[in-house]
Amino acid sequence: VDFFNQINMLYGTITEFCTEASCPVMSAGPRYEYHWADGTNIKKPIKCSAPKYIDYLMTWVQDQLDDETLFPSKIGVPFPKNFMSVAKTILKRLFRVYAHIYHQHFDSVMRLQEEAHLNTSFKHFIFFVQEFNLIDRRELAPLQELIEKLGSKDR
């Protein structure tokens, strides 16, 4: 939930730069393009702009977090058997927002003087997903160089 809130807030600061015109495709550099499918409303992945993709993604994640059967809020209510799978999918997709921001909008982040916050948020996210092996290494490829830099300073 905290990662979702942080990414949502960080992306919110650059939405004026991430438009249908500036980002007609959801990408993280020239080698990585993401298509949206939620498995319910959109079963076959569709190509869409970055703002549309991120809107779909944030709405989908919020729906998951609000689902009491997936994320029970009452004490003593167990998490479902598929919880880990859903959590991994959420985190994998949230990573794509970081990747898009770093690849397509880092200049805007710098102009807004938000790079320290973005880097701290991303570092916390990466250390968490790596500690618990929550995102496949191949999925992290668009930011692998940055991930190695962040990790080398502390280890």
Automatic annotation (TrEMBL):
Pfam families: Mob1_phocein (PF03637). Zn(2+) binds at C18, C23, H100, H105. It comes from Baryphthengus martii (Rufous motmot). This is MOB1A kinase. Gene3D superfamilies: MOB kinase activator (1.20.140.30). InterPro entries: MOB_kinase_act_fam (IPR005301), MOB_kinase_act_sf (IPR036703). It comes from the Eukaryota. The lineage of its organism: Eukaryota, Metazoa, Chordata, Craniata, Vertebrata. Keywords: Kinase, Metal-binding, Transferase, Zinc. The keyword Nucleus does not apply. GO terms for molecular function: kinase activity.
